[in-house]
Amino acid sequence: MTKPPMFKQDPNDREGGYLLSMAGVLALMGATAYEADDAVTPQGRANAKYGLARILSAARAGGFTQGDLLDTLFFNGEVSERLRDMVHAAVDAAGNKAMLEVVASLQERCDD
Q1: CA pair distance 103, 48, nearest whole angstrom
Q2: What does the alpha-carbon distance between residue 12 and residue 14 come to, in Å, rounded to a whole number?
Q3: By C-alpha distance, which of 44, 34, 22 is closest to 77?
Q4: Residue 56 in contact with residue 71, Cβ under 8 Å?
Q5: Taking CA 83 as the corner, what is the angle to CA 79 and CA 89, rounded to the nearest 5 degrees?
Q6: Model pLDDT for residues 8-17, shown as the tens digit of each residue
Q7: CA dist., res. 37 & res. 45, Å (int)
């Protein structure tokens, strides 16, 4: 079965914004958590690592067994079909409720 895209251009955003699926949220967090030092603020990196850890924990609770490998792929900056497939599997295992809770908790952390 074909998975939906993680990112797609928002047809309603005149400034070229994007829509993210929950898999896109995880992919963005994973990339941001380990991005080069000058590309992300320390607080941004800390928030991304927090969100990544929470999602991987929820995914493990849902039966996803490759959390450590997925984290390593993010750390190494891998961009591949394998990463995409693992991101989708992790989000599926975590479930929509857990994903929404993580996003809400990040919003609270960023409201400071």
Answers
A1: 11
A2: 6
A3: 34
A4: yes
A5: 155
A6: 899 999 998 9
A7: 9
Q: How confident is the model at residue 107 (pLDDT cuts 50, 70, 90)?
A: confident
Angle between helix 22-33 and helix 81-94 axes, rounded to 10 deg: 120
Long-range Cβ pairs for the range 18-24 (8 Å, 24+): 21/91, 22/91, 22/96, 22/99, 23/84, 23/87, 23/88, 23/91
Check: CB of residue 70 under 8 Å from CB of residue 80: no
Residue found under tokens 């929509």: 96
Alpha-carbon span 18 to 2, nearest angstrom? 20
What pLDDT band is residue 111 in, cutting at 50, 70 and 90? low
**DSSP string for residues in 64-83:** ---HHHHHHHHHTT--SHHH
Domain range list for the chain: 7-110
